[in-house]
Amino acid sequence: MKINKILSLLALCAVLISCGVSKPKVTSTANIITGSVRNDSGQAMEGVIVSDGVCVVKTDSEGNFEIPYDRVSGRFVFVSTPSGYRNASFRGPTCFYQDLTSDKKVYDFVLIKNEKNDLYNNAIVFADPQIADTLDLIPFAGRLDDMKEHVESLDPDAYNFGICLGDIVGWQHALYPRITKMIDKVGIDMRYVIGNHDMTNWGRSYETSFKEYEKFFGPTYYSFNVGKTHYVVLDDNFYVGRDYFYIGYLDERQLSWLEKDLATVPTDHKLVLCMHIPTTQGKEDRDRFMYDIIGDNLCNKPALYKMISGFDALILSGHMHTNTNFIIGGGKGKDGLMEHNLGGFCGCWWCGTVCVDGCPPGYKVYTTKDGNLNWYYKSCGYAPDFQGKLYLDNPDYPGLAVAHVWDYDDAWKVEYFEDGVKICDMERFSGKDPVAKAEFADPSKYKISWVACYPSPNMFKAPFNPNATKHIVKITDRFGRIHYLEN
Fold it and tell me: Taking the domain 2-78+85-111, which CATH number applies?
């Protein structure tokens, strides 16, 4: 009997070491769970990453795995879907996760072979649908129709999938089934991120904040692979145990798991992190800690940046209902680390026609082909080349030609022409979009009292000549695509 116990402990220690735990501590609640990963043809899948949110292991040559598991804190076991396989759904027999339960020790997974070569793919990414009631479902359906139509216009040889960056609801968790059923009609595999409005509020700690989300969507952090890109979903909405308040923060449990997860990823693969709250609002909060915006940026971002510095990485976030791109630097890749903070799919909480910064509601399309990644912002209701607005001698900007180029980053160029002659490279500034300013001047006409216009850093200006008959802004994006804004 004692020999069997010793052998069991030795086996547990061996598995713990494979999880990256250098000094295993065995408690009375420790268990080993087992399982397998097979494809839909029944073949064993070797080398697939499986995790319980703490340990990260690989399947053996027979597709089997073992994970030491603490039944006090563990909630799920999940697969990091490998390249060449469909992003398994969060429901049904091909779900990428399973609930950990006290009466079950074997967890078998089946993954669906991708019928397309996922080295060529389009990721359709959107943030903040934030459905607060059933009335919001009406305009939501219209914007999903736009997404579906655009997806159907893409190259049929590409594998298309989607990511929703959180705030799926405005705390109305009962609407999850209706919302996801509507999103399913777009016809693509979809992955979800938890947002602060998906949290369960009024609890006593962070650990009480994700229970309603997890009931429907499963784990709040996990990873998956498409082609040679490794995607990681994180929960950086840290509920502080008071009312509905939160900060942007990644707890040690996630960071420790992330270290182990990233250790399995080849450094020549692209890394994309998906979270709700952005890591940054600009250089100032990267240089120093700012108490006044702790709910609008990641407080412990230096640790995350350091952890991903060995990768060509991109961060995708939402939360702000503004569209801003940040070149953070460091790491690999042409520009180093970048973050795309996407505008709200709901615009300004389904009020008005634009987001709070004047960017139209929409989504981004990220295309990977032949090892190259490019992207564009797709405004709902407009063609893909709709990339800005031009205001001439507007009352808010008298004597100026002002362009709002909402998906701008530092690799873009914005030029101003009058009557066919280049006048200048336009000067970037932070200012309010005239349409947003006018629409949100009187919040009392909307169902939400906090609607407001916020400055966009993607405004450009040049002197305006009223005697010129033709005014054109030429926009050249980082991929060499040219867009024109005309009066």
Answer: 2.60.40.1120
Token duo for residue 188: 């693509």
Q: Please enumerate in sequence order all residues whose Cβ is within 8 A of that of 454, keeping only pairs 6 or more positions apart, or say none.
A: 322, 356, 357, 432, 436
Beta bridge partners of 271: 230, 313
Q: Which residues have CB under 8 Å from 58's CB, separation 6+?
A: 46, 47, 48, 49, 50, 65, 264
Q: Tens of pLDDT along 143-187?
A: 999 999 999 999 999 999 999 999 999 999 999 999 999 999 999
Spatial distance between the Cα atoms of 46 and 59, rounded to a whole number of angstroms: 5
Render pLDDT for 176-235 as a digit per residue (tens, 0 to 9): 999 999 999 999 999 999 999 999 999 999 999 999 999 999 999 999 999 999 999 999
Phi, psi of 303 (to 5 degrees): -65, -40
Question: CATH assignment of 121-379, given 3.90.25.10, 3.60.21.10, 3.40.50.261, 3.30.450.40?
Answer: 3.60.21.10
Question: Could you tell me where the DSSP H helices lie in 172-237?
Answer: 176-184, 211-217
* Helix or strand (DSSP H, E) at 146: helix 137-153
Q: What's the chain's Rg over C-alpha atoms?
A: 24
Q: How many angstroms separate the CA atoms of 272 and 342, rounded?
A: 14
E-strand stretches of 89-213: 97-99, 106-111, 121-126, 159-164, 189-192
Task: Give the count of alpha carbons within 13 A of 322, CB side only.
Answer: 27
CA–CA distance, 219 with 239 (Å, rounded to integer): 17
Hey, what are 231's tokens?
Answer: 């995607």
**CA–CA separation, 279 vs 264, rounded Å?**
24
In the chain, which residues fall in CATH 3.60.21.10? 121-379
Cα 128 to Cα 184: distance, rounded to the nearest angstrom: 17
201: which 2 tokens?
Answer: 């509020």
In the structure encoding, which two tokens stand for residue 463, read together?
């002197």
pTM comes to 0.94
Q: Please give the DSSP secondary-structure letter assigned to residue 134.
A: G
CA 449, CA 438: separation in Å to the nearest integer?
Answer: 16
Residue by residue, DSSP assigns 260-292 as HHHTTS-TTSEEEEE-SS-S-SSHHHHHS--GG
Tell how strand 324-327 and strand 338-341 pair up. antiparallel
Instruction: Dig out the tokens for 2 from the structure.
Output: 């004692």
Collapsing DSSP to helix, strand or coil, 362 comes out as strand
Q: SS3 of 4, please?
A: helix
Scan for tokens 């240089």, then name that residue. 287
Q: Which among 275, 173, 199 has a CA at the least distance from the CA of 232?
A: 275
Sign of the CA dihedral running 76, 339, 143, 482:
negative
Query: Which residues in the chain are classed under CATH 2.60.40.1120?
Result: 2-78+85-111
